[in-house]
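Work package 3, deliverable 3.1, input record:
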Amino acid sequence: MHAVILSIGDELVLGQTVDTNSAWLAQQLVSHGIQTAWHQTLCDEQPGIVRALRQAAEDADFVLVSGGLGPTEDDLTREALAEAMGVDLVVDAASLAQLEAFFARRNRPMPQRNRVQAMHPRGSSMIVNHHGTAPGLKAGLGRAVVYVMPGVPREMQHMFTDSVLPELAAAAGDLVILTTRINTFGLGESDLAQRLGDLMVRERNPKVGTTVSDGFCCVRIRSEFPDHATAATRLDATVEAVTRAVGPTVFGRDEQTLAENLVALLKQEHLTVATAESCTGGLVGTMITDVPGSSAVYRGGWVTYSDAMKAAQLGVPEDMLAVHGAVSEPVVRAMAAGALHHSGAELAVSLTGIAGPDGGTPDKPVGTVWIGLAARRHDGGTHVEAALVRNHGDRAAIRDRSAKCALQMLRFHIMGVPLDEVQWLKRAGPLSSAPTA
Amino acid sequence: MHAVILSIGDELVLGQTVDTNSAWLAQQLVSHGIQTAWHQTLCDEQPGIVRALRQAAEDADFVLVSGGLGPTEDDLTREALAEAMGVDLVVDAASLAQLEAFFARRNRPMPQRNRVQAMHPRGSSMIVNHHGTAPGLKAGLGRAVVYVMPGVPREMQHMFTDSVLPELAAAAGDLVILTTRINTFGLGESDLAQRLGDLMVRERNPKVGTTVSDGFCCVRIRSEFPDHATAATRLDATVEAVTRAVGPTVFGRDEQTLAENLVALLKQEHLTVATAESCTGGLVGTMITDVPGSSAVYRGGWVTYSDAMKAAQLGVPEDMLAVHGAVSEPVVRAMAAGALHHSGAELAVSLTGIAGPDGGTPDKPVGTVWIGLAARRHDGGTHVEAALVRNHGDRAAIRDRSAKCALQMLRFHIMGVPLDEVQWLKRAGPLSSAPTA
């Protein structure tokens, strides 16, 4: 079984919007044993869409189209599908009623333009959109089945999962392809490859590869066998071998984020955490609270962007700020200790650094970030440690990597693993973790 | 002049990674009058890459390839280019020295695997990579020029801008294509289209279209004329017409973010701001501090995720929390007033809501978010207002839209524009903005 994916939209061809739908669809397809033959990005021009639809219907069993179903004049996919099929457009009464209900729920009159969204090529059927105003379309074209879905990723994903995937899965072929991803943070790609060694040999099945994305080094595993049981068993064995080879920087599989893993770990250990952020401006708090249910383990935090806030809110001594500067080990330690004290949490993490592009000095170049961690000790005292990370990249990358280092530092502390395993902290410079009372 | 864009990587075909490089490259090309003929995503398999390179070299003047230059065994682009050219691979001494220097700067020994990154097809030249370990490649293939760049977006973008674009621009053709994007927040796509009216007629040049992305409704403008002066003049006139038609929800052009516009406005008015966040967990602070130089206008803030933090840090009365609940108008007002008082800023914004997926009630369904704004009055008193927004979508969307509503609410307050213009606040429910002493 083969599929072709078409993405429609001037904004995609011009590059004004990144096409995330094709990757998402390809991923869904491959996990159900359907290979994507090719993928094309097309303008909002009817003749081009018609030609591509016809070509795709010759090459594949399924044609998955997203985009061009909106209410405006530059949305031409339904017209193009009708032309490719050689039929006219007709109004679907049920879809029109559903559209009107959608706007009624939001207490708004339905704009006249939206009426076109209730039209479809004669002989095609409409797919209900529970998450937006554009119904999808299903039609036969030559020997292929064409599914047209909205371009808005959330709407497309819901429609694909609810209405399209069950039909594709039922028709899927013999070869079972299972894929998974092991997520790591704290090792470079070459180092990861050296740890993986022979696991990465090209001929291996399951196949093992690495990719880098947003500072994460991920290990991709792809298991291809005629039957599901073998594919699953061999995949699991490779997952275990990879996890053992890589070590504790592994934090999760597939879509699991570093923050999700941390929140699960905090719940398991009945611990709560607080944050004190300067250069990251709230990003660590944002990452933790991205996780549903994080309120069980996250007390909250401070964004002490100014020195005055560091002193007034976290009790960082003003003379310490004056002598050592805001980006320094004593200040990051005082921030962590202050956040622990004022939040009542069992753990606190703090960050202060230079995210750039300006503000760097020879001593403290852009990318210099101190991370502090404070924890309540069983004897009632406070353990405080600090690490220095020197990030490369632009402001966004420096902030992102620093926030992730802070999350990984919390994980390692909870698991009792030495920080040395996080190369980006270890290799970065002097590491200090002397406990203080 | 035509280009073909090839993206190499199993992870792209499988959909494990989204290909952002193609969109970025297409955007760069079109702004220099070079049309992208097609775009293909390919596996890390040598035969497929060789065939695609040969096909691309027949169809286009320039072939832009990204990916497959890494140090691991599944990186095969340089081997494929050599095979397509019918030559062998040779070591480049200068590149080898540069690679060794890259690792030396990071105080790490160079892994043996990275050596292959100093090799290139005989007859090709290498392109220096100032931001990573993989040098790029430039080679003639048939009548086309092939540029191979790293797959890591940051490295690819630097290499393209510094070394590839100047060569392409010099060779570019006659038709000048200028594009821009007008960014808005707070109007739906249909409403935007109704305001734009005839500006969206298909035959118009400059062409006007709309796209939705991350809650932003953007107006794309594309101006195509034989000479640069006409293209620029007509583009500017359309920008002005669009801006006038849409109104104050417009916050910027092209890559300007809502937070960048807000920070610029705060600087211009010599105002500072503080944040008090519950459901957004630090996202508003993160958005503001994403902007370089935001320290001039942002004091910092609180992530009061627990009721205890709201009471202890912002002075929200405990009986108010008990009577009205944390997600309520009195609480959001008290949070904003508390943040204003404790930060010393001239403005404070606060958020409390239900981001889901759990925690909704019939009265306060998931997506219910109160936003508060406090400002110092000239008479020494405090103005406090609040708005209710009812967001649709998942947890991430609810948090993101809420944070953007808060930024837009600050903008409107500073500009003295009534909140009614932000449909998502106005249409959402009761709006209250009575000043309190």
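Chain A is about 40% helix and 25% strand.
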